[in-house]
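Fold this sequence, please.
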Amino acid sequence: MSWRQQRNIMAFAKSYGYVRFFHPADQAKQEYWSGFAIYGAKQIIDVPDDETLLLKLRELFSPIAPTAKFYTSAKKIKTEIDFKIPRDVASPLTVSWQHKGFNLYGRDDFFKSIRLNRPPLLPEEKRPQPILIASANVSAYQGKKYRLSMRIRNQNKSDDRELSIFYRNALESRPSPEIHTNISAQSLQLERTITSSQEEIAIGMQLLDGLNLDVKDLKLEILDRNKRIPLELNKDVAAENKPLTNTIILSAKDTLAAPLFSRKHHLGDYIDEEMVPGIRCMVPTAVPGDATRTFPLVAEKDIFAFQAAIAQDKAHRSNQAGSFLEVRLGNLVIAWNVLRHSFPYWRDVEHHPDSLFNHSAKAAFKAMDSDGFIKVLKEMTTALNDGHIMIDFFDGSHRPDSLSAPLLFARAGEQVVIKGILDDQLKSKIANGDQVIEINGLGAAQYIENQKKLISGSPQWKDMAALTRLSNGDDKSELQLKLNHHGEDTTIFLKRTRPAVQYRSGKSSDFERKSGWVTSDIYYFDLTRRSFSKEMIDTLKQAKAVIFDMRGYPVDDQVFDIINLLQTKKQKIHLFSFPEILWPNMTNNRYDRAIAVSRPADRHLSIKAYFLTDASAQSASETFLAQIRYFKLGKLIGQPTSGTNGTINVLLMQGKYRMTFSGLFTQNGDGSKHHAIGIVPDIQVEPTVASYQQREDNVLKVAIEEAKNGR
């Protein structure tokens, strides 16, 4: 990538972000932005000089931001803007953006983006409604592949919108879309692997506004070698929801969006920023309008030409994959701008956002394919130290690391050791506590450091995630390990036989303890494997002490009932804040503090409570533990938590790329820093080689001793 190309794409990227998220003209419709980023990157990358660059920027943005100005830094320009308000508009409205985070789906979701004096992007009544169709028990087929197939028919043959089909397992509270397709499709098919912990598959759809859809021949089959085993589908789940066949979700009349906060832009407000040395842009952040238009108006022929250019550019590519340079650069422009203007932790990032973009643009030039571009996005976002960041393909169509070896790895001091063997046939040549010396011919420490270069988060989260994903790979390769086994070095080659794992509870091993009585008056409750129910209260009341294990993610939200049961008075806590985004670059913005009030339950647990934790305690686990710590309801034992909390925002890009990241600002209950630090336990306990050799959970052991002594 030449200096000239780097300068061109940076100028376009900054212009794109300022206009997309802060310029409120009606012409800048949401459906343009993905295609425009790719089209614009292609148009701008090879312009030969600054004069042509300025001309091209004006040409690209004039149909959607007619009042934006692009000029050289040496030139003085008038900041007053003639919006060409028609004479018959006596009292124009002021239209401007407000964001609480970024709403990246174009619908009223957790994060909100609205234009004042304009209808919402999509009213609440028009949101796609998830509807369950059927479910099946798959506990007998864990690790097997399955195929889901169906035929669909839309009554409205001219409807070419998208349909989302999702599946979820029994532990997921929110379904994730697995297929995006045109409604006009005749048949659909999905093949996946049932995870080792999955007991149920629930099948459903998200129906769009005004959709009239029939589904027929719904089948779920297990693929076992050359056999297809049909599964019986329970369709009673649909009775609890709206019926699927001939469902119509009525539209609602558009109303003006309610303000998100009191601050707002006024006519005359604008962004004036240097995009690259010597070239600036000025973008109004408020424009006048009436009930149906913003001013100045843009000729319809110019809008149509703009739309046609984007559509024709897309049609010239066989697909939107990362094998095309413009797709890689366009998606980089989108992802970088979303983070630049909404990610709440830039103060903690060592690198300047511009340097991250420039480095990533150079890497995108060399990437050549979809997998290479995934790596580019991972390398860029690693610098943000956000454990919520995940980069993948949202339809699951391309997963190069699809399998893993049947081993679990852990850190014991500076050593990497085996902490679990999931295949009994390996136990004759591998033992718990064996030191891992080399991985695929590279020293274990260096191999893990290389893995961590593609993982975002705190130091403890990166280390745990790298160890969890250590053996992931494709089905055609083997994992080579050099181990110290009973004092002798040995090299083994392992086939990957289990589904790949991205996240696993930190306590996962082949010697995990199940919930139950440890002694006659000490109870152990694994909150990551078992749901907390009110029926458990009578059992726990019999205990002198209860050890709650939160090394991982809670099964469901009922875990928060424990806080109320331990409390004796009403208490408040401030953990989360919404960024109120009015200006770019996360500057001059404020935060809306979310105060949570917690009240004692009708029944009280008068017990000594101990909570086990480590870096796999992330997000909801940390919300729970933060309240335990701040309200002084128990003692924390283990290692620091992940340091990653706050609701995830999701960006979907062309080529089926997906990026998730933390959208809220989070702090600890006492106001101290949480991001990339986590919650530090009262008693820190580190695993040892001896504890793994003896198949002993030394964190739980310390907690039991504390409980026995009443400390």
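The domain at 516-709 is CATH 3.90.226.10 (2-enoyl-CoA Hydratase; Chain A, domain 1). Confidence is low (pLDDT under 50) at residues 123-127, 167-178, 238-254.
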